[in-house]
Amino acid sequence: PYTTLFRSVFTEDGAFFGHLRDVMETGANDVYIIDSDEHGEVLIPAIQDCILHVDPEARQMTIHLMKGLIQ
Q1: Which helix (H) or strand (E) element contains residue 8?
Q2: Average pLDDT value over all residues in the chain
Q3: In terms of C-beta density within 10 A (0-12 exposed, 13-18 middle, 19 or more buried), how is residue 27 classed?
Q4: Distance from CA of residue 7 to its chain's centroid?
Q5: How far, in Å, CA of 67 to CA of 11, rounded?
Q6: What's this model's pTM, rounded to 2 decimal places?
Q7: pLDDT at residue 24 above 60?
Q8: How far apart are CA 22 and CA 62, in angstroms?
Q9: Cα–Cα separations (whole angstroms), residue 18 to 21, 23, 27, 43, 60
Q10: How confident is the model at residue 4 (pLDDT cuts 50, 70, 90)?
Q11: Could you write out the DSSP letters of every residue in 17-70?
Q12: Region 30-51: what's the mean pLDDT?
């Protein structure tokens, strides 16, 4: 299901955030590892509240940065 890594990641306001590097499988839910020039490595839980839209054809993902996810 994660054959298209290195997809572009954008925030809900349309700003470029980084690139999806890998997916960490955990017991409860997967965690997306995103490389961000501004924030370094950012871990985003693969939950509906954070992952707003995934476009496999465009290799893009739109996320919501919940409070506390970045420093």
Answers
A1: strand 8-11
A2: 88
A3: exposed
A4: 9
A5: 13
A6: 0.85
A7: yes
A8: 16
A9: 9, 14, 25, 12, 10
A10: low
A11: EEEEEEEE--SSS-EEEEEETTTEEEEEE-STTTEEEEETTTTEEEE---TTS-
A12: 93
How large is the average pLDDT for residues 58-68? 90
Residue at token pair 């409070």: 67
Q: Tokens 């992952």 identify what position?
A: 51
More confident residue, 2 or 5: 5
Q: Which burial class, exposed, middle or buried, applies to 69 when counting CB atoms under 10 A from its CB (0-12, 13-18, 19+)?
A: middle
| Mean pLDDT on 25-35 | 91
The structure tokens listed for 64 are 């919501």
Radius of gyration of the chain (CA): 11
Q: Which tokens sit at 34?
A: 């995103």
Any idea what the Cα angle at residue 58 is, between residues 10 and 5, rounded to 5°?
75
